Amino acid sequence: MSHPTPNARLPWTAKPLSRAATLAIATVALVTYAGLPAAHADAPTTQRVGSVPTAPGDATKTADPADDTPVQLSVHLKSRNEAGANALAAAVSDRTSPQYHHFLQTGEFAQRFGADPATVAKVSQALTAQGLKPGALAADGLTIPVSTTVAQAKKSFDVDLAGYATPDGRTGFLNTAAPAVRSDVAGAITGVVGLNTLAQAHSSHVIGATGQAGTGLAHSAATAAAGAYPAMCGGAAAAFPGKTDGKDYFSPSALASAYGLNGMTDGGFGTTVAVFALEDYSDAGLSAFQSCFGTNASVQRVRVNTGYQAPPTNNGVGVETALDIDTVIGLAPRANVLVYQGPDASRATQADIQNTYRQIVSDNRAQVVTTSWGVCDQVMATSDLVAERDIFLQAALQGQTVVAASGDDGSSGCNYLKNAGAPASITNLLSTSDPASQPLVTGVGGTTLSSNGGTVSESVWNRNGGASGGGISRWAQTGGGYQAGFYGPGYNNQCQGAAGTVCRQVPDVAANADPSTGYVVSTGAGSWMIVGGTSGSAPLWAAIAAHQNNPGCTGRVGFLAPAFYYAAKHGIPALNDVTSGNNDIGIQGGLYAATSGYDMATGLGTPDADKVMKLVCNPNAGYDRTIEAVENGQLHEVYTDLTGWHDGVVPGVTGLSALSFTYNANGNRVIEAIENGELHEIYTDNTGWHDGVIPGLSGITAMSFSFSPSGDRVIEAIKGGELHEIYSASDGWHDGVIPGLSGITAMSFSYSPSGARVIEAIKGGELHEIYSASDGWHDGVIPGLSGITALSFNYNTSGVRVISAIKNNQLHEVYSASDGWHDGVIPGVTGNITSLSGKITPGGDRVIQAIEDGKLYEVHSADGNWFHAPVPVDNSNVTALSLALH
Fold first, then answer.
1. What per-residue confidence (pLDDT) applies to 226?
2. What is the pTM of this model?
3. What pLDDT is stored for residue 55 in this prediction?
4. How far apart are CA 472 and CA 490, in angstroms?
5. What CA–CA distance (Å, rounded) separates 596 from 709?
6. Cis status, amide bond into 507, omega within 30 of 0
7. DSSP single-letter state for residue 615
8. Sheet hosting strand 634-641, strand order edge to edge
């Protein structure tokens, strides 16, 4: 799992936490603080939970907030199964897992991983007893909202709320002690969010140029015909005299060419992108952009407790959101956009910020989420980071792709706080930006993009005091998680993670962010800008992910980052590596430099969009395994579903020696098996399992079973040393000898694409292919393939015969091609395999279940690589098996 380790810097503090607090937070445990007022004998004891902020370095103490000041709080609860949620999030994001892309539906997260109802009731009762009025449990099942006042919060949580003013004119308050709750519920609460109003989010954009549009703002149909991403209208281009598209700025069509989107024809159709915002935006500006570029995207506001919002201006309020929206609809013009608006950034608390993210995730209307607002993670309370992480955990489990700008202050992620009077001890820290640094968010850094005659090159964006955000976050991941084995130049254990953990590094990927090569944005009627910053690169990545209904895709693509690290490990090209420059803004001695491979300036690189989507739109996603296996003489069903692997006994079925299994057209399991020497058919229907003898068919020693194209059961079997074909028909079962085919010891059978029966068999120690044709049965030796003792055979989608086989005690793959048969060893499988059953996914990956040293193992291919691991169920003495995918 992942957990944040403390740097003990809540708003602008440089004081370390006590050792006791450090150890507790490092394991996401709760801290018990001494020094509470002595309890009365009849009063319940209390315990402090969460974190204690320290006063800002250059802030001025002011009057405490008035007692009647409204306060919106969120009491965050522990999951009933945190380990299970973390494991499932890893599995649905792991291309090698059977649970890959098996996402939860809306509402399932709360049902499975929310706090249990008894805990919720007990915590709510305790809060009520402390004088508060808790609201209804939020849709995530982990958050209890509390609307109260300063006076009541102080009394109920036994804290003072001290007022401060910062040099930039902001005022706010923070708690001087961790909140106290009743001891009998303290273990169920991770923290109380909203007691600190001084740590505010900021946007990550930089204005490069402004201009007023000329005439000709209407989109040209002739221009539209030139490509999927039309060029900018003449009126907008006139706003930037002397500047050239593809050099001084990049319009959507220029970005599409640079980043490989031109071959993606769906335009984001059917996908909804959520834009996180802490401000309003200009409808006139949006209308001007859509008119200029010929788009007609649906863009709607979703207000989340916004209250009063400042009106948008041409160069201030609304610029960030305009950049996000325009970038998304420029590169995914057929996508829908929902702008989730929290309160204005100037007054949004962490509770407000998290409520807005939580609404996006709980609604689950958007498949893709982009955010360009961030907070230096060094000034965030650990309990706030943990509460926020659970929001993004739910998003990952639901298959929502979340991308976040990594910030514009390079490796000094807190440097923006100098504008608020923060001391150098904070602004000069090596630091990263939240939520890009969250372990379940894909952090997006920035580059300077250059295109010369169709040749694209990029370097780390670092110009005029702005640079790609990146570095070492406060999060430590066990074993490194999906970043295992990747260490950017300059990496160290800055997060102070425990033994066996590795600090989360940021960013994961990057894209154009330099305002000198920035994005074209309309901020009002006639007002146009060239805007840069990682606020542009994040929605660019969101627009790419919106193409999840492009041909070959299967819907939601989920948490992106793990797929890119997987691709980098296995040499799969999907990103453009950026190898020059660094993101030090003159404070950190050159940290962090770009290099070949992963670095903390641009991550793994920038997108080649078509390759990116082919990587994350894996057509092999979502195939569960069902294995019918004989274990200790009994029939077991071993299978995967959304919750993992399972193993159960099929009751009353014993004495099996061989079996072959598939699903029928109704989705029921049908097993043909040798049970106590006789042929049985075992099957399921809506009333349960059934087992019946097929009469007169004893003496069978091996078999392979399939449904015919017309739906009849066809069994090729070895009976009395001869090959028999046994089949069902309207008048019952039939059994006939296939003449001249004795001496077969093992076989596997399938129908060819043309409907012929094809049997791959071991006969006389050699591999034979036996097949039916209009003139009867044919038998031929496949030369050079002796030594096979067991096999499993399938056709792939191209009509190629693929045989998984045990040959000379090694696992081999034998396949046909236009130039003949080929045979190769499947690497990395060294155990004693005695039996196997294989299938091929529609995407071409091979899945083999094998009995290895008496236990079940899975061997499967992905992207040209083989993986080998035990099936994670308790099993032993397995003697036979048959696999189906569904």
1. 35
2. 0.84
3. 56
4. 9
5. 53
6. yes
7. H
8. 644-654, 634-641, 625-631, 878-885
